[in-house]
Amino acid sequence: MHPNFFKQLLLISQFELKRGFATRKGLLSVVTFAVVWYFILLYPLRFAADLLVQEKGLNHNSSFLDFIGFGSLQLWPIPEFGVFWQFALLIFPMLSITIAADQTSSDRKRGTLRFIVLRSSRDSLFFGRFIGVLAIQAILIAATAFSTLLLVLYRDATLFSSALPNLFVIIVNVTLAVLPFTAMMAALSAKLLSAKQATLWAILIWTFLAGIISGFAHYLPALDFFKFLIPGYQLSALAQLSEWQTLQLAYIPLLQSLVLLALGRWIMARQAL
Amino acid sequence: MNTPIIQCQRLNHIYSDTVALSDVNFDLDAGEPIGLVGPNGAGKTTLLNILSGFLRPTSGSVKLFGYRPGAAELIGKISALPQDARLDPSFTIAEQLVFYALLQDLTKPQATLEASRVLEAVSLTEVAQEKPNALSHGMAKRVAIAQALIGTPALILLDEPTAGLDPVNVRTVRTIIAEQSSMTTFIISSHDLAELDRLCQKVLLLEKGVLLPETISRNEQQTETRFITLQMETCPALELIAKLQALEGVLQVTNPQKNEFIVAYNPDLQPSMDLQVMQCISTNHWQYRQLSHGKTLEEKLFFSK
Predict the structure, then answer these.
(1) Under an 8 A CB cutoff, do A117 and B70 touch?
(2) Which residues of A32-67 are buried (b: 16+ CB within 10 A; e: fewer)?
(3) Cα atoms in the Cβ-side hemisphere of radius 13 Å centred on A251
(4) Half-sphere exposure of residue B296, counting CA atoms within 13 Å on the CB side?
(5) What domains can you pick out in chain B, each with its CATH number?
(6) Does the pTM exceed 0.90?
(7) CA–CA separation, A247 and A228 (whole Å)
(8) Which of A118, B53, B55, B231 is the most core-located residue (most Cβ within 10 A)?
(9) Which of A115, A266, A271 to mutate to test the interface with B (most CBs of B within 10 A)?
(10) A167 closest CA partner among A71, A88, A52, A50
């Protein structure tokens, strides 16, 4: 590995962060996201959490929540984080497909990547962009988690010390959940010529992969193993866990990401720029 | 003996079923600018893209300074002006040039200074804080040339550097190449043969993906036959040819284009043929526009058979 590899990796990922938060387009996306999140926080999240607090006070066994598949909400000692956990596992992987769709595609179409690969290796470029886009998502996840913490403290300021470990677990876990989606988009973006194409292909591949593997596995249970290839495979199981237990399934997104990044690197190394 | 800066051996590239390069072999040494010419679709851009590391050849071997294109060892050593490549529209010109300089391992203050220097070289300091979309085609081209100059690389590959530029900026590019050619070897692909004639001592000719064996060199001192190219104001062509052919040492006079004449002569019989030709023009009260030694590049490449 070239001695400048990590320096270039850092420079390229910093440049991506700048694109995410310090360009007009990036800022517009962040503001839009903040507005949408404000309403999610203010209405569904706050109301749902209030409801759970009241239910806990009444000491119900909430069979209704179990019935609709949200029984794990009661496992979280701080209801706001329980609701946030369910929302985050749904929203952030979907958001990842759009945020991470244009890691290299439009720059390749425009020829901008040529200016960069004259000065850095393709590996630095590929992994630098991936890390940058992942960092942007991690910051958004952390920001939303902190806003949920503020909501908790607004209700009961004494919960601060018990809320902090939950906050950390959620940030780490949701970031892990978006990891394979970001890696999948990195690989697709290295091959396709626009973010739109990458998003469409991601949806198609994900749907067909999930459908075909599940279909075959139904008749031949030995194929069940291949479900591990589907990004987000662990999300439904993850939603049923709470607090530190959620890290039990961390190996799945990590392995998926390794496979997808290896594939993306292979594509990038052979791609005409 | 110097090691060639570029070594290509049995280089082939095929797009789907179209052969873009076929068995291209050549070695190039560092030195004066080298031209790369050929008709549209000859494979010039493909060759430059392979040398720049943007494209992997289908087969064959390419080495730049002893390394394969795209190797980390070449960072800062080679640069390029890719055809039709544009900067990122989200960032200012200065931000991107500084970023490129940082990738070339310059420190932040050095990178800032270098970005200003290269913009000044292409007379575009005033656009440093503009976004690429605010630039005209010509300005964008000059900015792309500026990025190629960052860090004063040893080899710069320029694909159509003057296409779309106005005459003033063509001259600016020519001056940059002339000024930097003592430190940098330029390889210039262009259809502007007059431009290459001015800049290059050596020209490679590609045709249908094949590198033709006759590499054109400006040095005609050793040849037995020399040429003078004469451009006249309106004059009686047949009479002029007859008068020139009557001069001692003249081997042949041709008239390839209107008012343009090429005089082939034996320098052993008449070493100062230029003076004889001018004397002849003056005696007959004709007017000439230009007289130059040798043939034009166009004539050498495409019509000297």
Answers:
(1) yes
(2) ebeeebeebbeeebbebbeebeebeeeeeebeebee
(3) 1
(4) 18
(5) 6-217 (3.40.50.300), 226-302 (3.30.70.100)
(6) no
(7) 16
(8) A118
(9) A115
(10) A88
Q: For strands B34-37 and B202-207, give the pairing.
A: parallel
CB B42 within 8 A of CB B91: no
Euclidean distance between CA atoms B302 and B297, whole angstroms:
8
A16 near B CB under 8 A: no
Tell me the pLDDT of chain A (273 aa) as tens digits: 677 899 999 999 999 999 999 999 999 999 999 999 999 888 888 887 777 777 665 555 555 556 555 666 667 778 888 888 888 988 999 999 999 999 999 999 999 999 999 999 999 999 999 999 999 999 999 999 999 999 889 888 888 888 888 899 899 999 999 999 999 999 999 999 999 999 999 999 888 888 888 888 888 887 777 778 788 888 878 777 777 788 888 899 999 999 999 999 999 999 999
Residue A227: CA atoms inside 13 Å, Cβ hemisphere, count?
Answer: 17
Give the residue carrying structure tokens 């230029």: B274
Integer angstrom CA distances of residue A183 from A186, B21, B219: 5, 35, 57
Q: Provide the number of structural domains found in chain A.
A: 1
Single out the residue of A259, A253, A104, A270 nearest to residue A186, CA to CA: A104
By residue range, what is the domain housing residue A70?
Answer: 5-270
B90-116: b (≥16 Cβ within 10 Å) or e: bbbbbbbbbbbbbbbbbeeeebbebbe
Q: Which residues contact B37 (CB under 8 A, 6 or more apart)?
A: B44, B189, B190, B191, B193, B196, B203, B204, B205, B206, B297, B301
Please determine, for the modelled complex, whether the ipTM score is greater than 0.85: yes
List CB contacts (< 8 A) between A2 and chain B. 72-73
CB within 8 Å of chain B, chain A residues 95-134: 107, 110-112, 114-122
Burial of B33 (0-12, 13-18, 19+ CB in 10 A): buried
Name every chain A residue with its beta carbon within 8 A of the beta carbon of B105: 4, 7
